[in-house]
Amino acid sequence: MPPHVFRQTLDFDGTVEMPVTPRETNHMSFGKAKQPALLALEDGLTFKGHAFGAEGESSGEVVFNTGMTGYQEVLTDPSYKGQIVTMTYTEMGNYGLNSADVESWQPWVEGFIVRENSPVASSWRSEESLTEYLRHNGSCARRGGCLAGSTRD
C-alpha cells in the first residue's frame, strides 16, 4: 500500500482532512480558500461565489452547458469565445486536464462557473488540475452559489 499524506482543505462546509496518495498531490488545487467572486448580470442580478483559476475580471454572455464530463473540451472549444460558461453538473475537475484532449491550443471561454471544483485530479492521464490549467492560461473561474434564478424570465 502506498504511503499517504494528509492535508487540510477548506470546502463549502468548513475544514476537512483528506488522505491522498503522493501521486495525487501533484494535481491538487492549492491556493486561496474561499476568495470571493461575484457574477453580476446586465439586469443587476448578482450571484456570490468563490474564485479559483486566474485572478481578474471578465465579461461575456453567460451560457449553460449540461454535460457531466468534457469540461476540458468546453474550455478549449472556439465556439465558446466571448462567453462565460456555467457547467450545470455538480462537480468539475475530478479527472484533471491533459494535452491529448484539447479542442484547440488555448481556452476560449471568458469565464468558467462550476458548483464545485474538485481538489483532486484523479485520472492517470491528468497532467494538471482544473485550477492549475485556468491559472496558467489566465482564465477566471467561479465556484459555488446558485444560478437557478438566472434561467427564469
Can you describe this structure?
The protein is mostly beta strands. The chain has one domain (5-151): Carbamoyl-phosphate synthase small subunit, N-terminal domain (Glucose Oxidase, domain 1, 3-Layer(bba) Sandwich), CATH 3.50.30. 10% of the residues lie in helices and 32% in strands. It has helices at residues 22-25, 71-75, 130-136, and strands at residues 5-11, 14-20, 36-40, 46-53, 61-65, 83-87, 91-92, 111-114, 116-117, 140-143. The strands form three sheets. The chain has a six-stranded mixed β-sheet. It has a two-stranded antiparallel ribbon with strand order 1-2. A two-stranded parallel ribbon has the order 7-9. Residues 1-32 have low confidence and may be disordered.
Give me some keywords for this one.
153 residues, mainly beta, Glucose Oxidase, domain 1, 6-stranded mixed sheet, two-stranded antiparallel ribbon, 3 helices, globular, disordered N terminus
